[in-house]
Amino acid sequence: MAMSAVARDTVFALRRQIAKIEGTLPERLQAPAPGAPIHATGSGMTPDMTIIRRGLAVAAADAFLHTGIERLDTALGGGLPKAALSEIHGLETRDAGTVAGFALSLVSLILKERQGQPILWVGTAEIFHEAGLPYARGLSALFGIEPEQLLFSEAPKLLDALWIAEEAARMTAFAAVILEIRGSPQRLDLTATRRLHARAQSANRPVLLLRQAGEADPTAAPVRLIVSAAPAASRETVAGPLAGSIGHPAFKVDIGKSRTALPGQFTLEWNPDEHAFAERTENSVAVVPASQRGADPAPASGAVLAFPALASSAIGDQPSRQQHPAHRGPRRAG
């Protein structure tokens, strides 16, 4: 039975009200047919529109940052939204370098479209002392980013870092803003991330929130990618993979949250020569390769031999009191 116009408008109004209360948006309604005109109704939109974010019914062709991986871009509904807050989360502190490398890979893709504009990287003194800063020569060699294009702002407290990131996110002079945070601070709540997301929308610039360790707390970011290190494959040569070599850096990317995608996992390699991602399957890399210098691995065991149990041990074979293992004796209390 077809839904009446009044009932349809009521349902859409309730969806928008629920989204406003929860701080989220309806994930997806019904995509418009190719070439179909868009008509407004009393509720402000028709049911054949795709809701991407508040105030934007149909995403433009250049509304997303394409990673170049068709499967990942399709899963994300087109790619990472440019005018939005995107969260890149590393579950452990040891993943800080991997998270930063993945962020720099995205920055390299952003600068291809916004050449000549710098990137501002904001962080607290705690995270910069713990994870360090990117190496200037590595920026140019691996990502094609000139050192003068990447600006750093070290804040003594998280409150100061949030204020700097909010003010920078509203400026169109930056190609993107990166905010790096360690752990799960209370000040990084829905209110703070909503402000960052709103600044990114108004300036039409991406804001990347790097979360090093900590829990995956709720944020206003439409997309959360969980990034960790993946084993590097061997270098490719004309004759095939070069044994014992280390190839391109690799990332394991999980879609932890997305308003338009289901959870998924991808293994991406970053090509420093072409400054582009490439996808590979996890089965193509041997994590523990067989030794090439020694003999072949031992064959499977054959017949099983049973040794007869000894009836009893001679008294002289028993260890003396001094020879008993230390963990069998009582510990000293004082």
Explain the overall architecture:
The chain has 7 helices and 13 strands. Strand 11 (250-258) and strand 12 (265-271) form a beta hairpin. The model is unreliable at 22-57, 283-292 and 323-334 (pLDDT under 50). The chain has helices at 5-22, 70-75, 96-113, 125-131, 136-143, 158-169, 190-203; strands at 64-65, 80-81, 85-90, 119-124, 150-155, 176-182, 207-212, 223-230, 235-237, 240-242, 250-258, 265-271, 276-279. The protein is globular, with a radius of gyration of 28 Å. Helices cover 25% and strands 21% of the residues. With 334 residues, it is α/β, with parallel strands linked by helices. The chain has a 9-stranded mixed β-sheet with strand order 5-4-6-7-3-8-11-12-13, with helices on both faces. A two-stranded antiparallel sheet has the order 1-2.
Strand order of the largest sheet: 5-4-6-7-3-8-11-12-13
Main sheet attributes: strand count, strand direction, barrel closure: 9 strands, mixed
Q: How much helix is in the residues?
A: 10-25%
What does the overall shape look like? globular
H/E element sequence: HEHEEHEHHEHEHEEEEEEE
The number of distinct β-strands equals: 13
The Rg value, from CA coordinates, equals 28 Å
Strand content: 15-25%
Distance between the termini: 83 Å
The low-confidence parts are 22-57, 283-292, 323-334
Content-based structural category: alpha/beta
Please sum up the structure shown.
With 334 residues, the protein is α/β, with parallel strands linked by helices.
